[in-house]
Design brief:
The chain is mainly alpha-helical. Helix content is 61%, strand content 0%.
C-alpha cells in the first residue's frame, strides 16, 4: 500500500529530491557494526547466545554476514 497525496501520488521535483536525499542517509539511521558488536548484542540474551554457539561454524559465519547486509538467509 502507499500513502496518497493531493496529486494522486505523483511527486513534485522537490518532493522527489527530499525523498532521494533521505534514502542516501540510511547509513546514518543504521550505522554498520563490527562482528564483535553483533556478538555483544547476542550476549545480552544468554539463551540466544547459547543457541548461536551451538550452530556449526558455517551457520555462524552466514549469520554474521547476514547481519552485515552481505548475504541473505535461506
Amino acid at each position: 500500500m502507499y500513502n496518497e497525496n493531493k496529486n494522486n501520488n505523483i511527486m513534485t521535483t522537490s518532493e522527489y529530491n527530499r525523498s532521494k536525499s533521505s534514502i542516501t542517509n540510511i547509513k546514518q539511521l543504521f550505522p554498520s557494526r563490527t562482528n564483535d558488536e553483533y556478538l555483544l548484542e547476542l550476549k545480552k540474551n544468554p539463551s540466544i547466545y547459547r543457541t548461536y554457539l551451538n550452530w556449526p561454524d558455517k551457520w555462524k559465519s552466514r549469520f554474521l554476514e547476514f547481519m552485515e547486509g552481505k548475504k541473505s538467509l535461506p
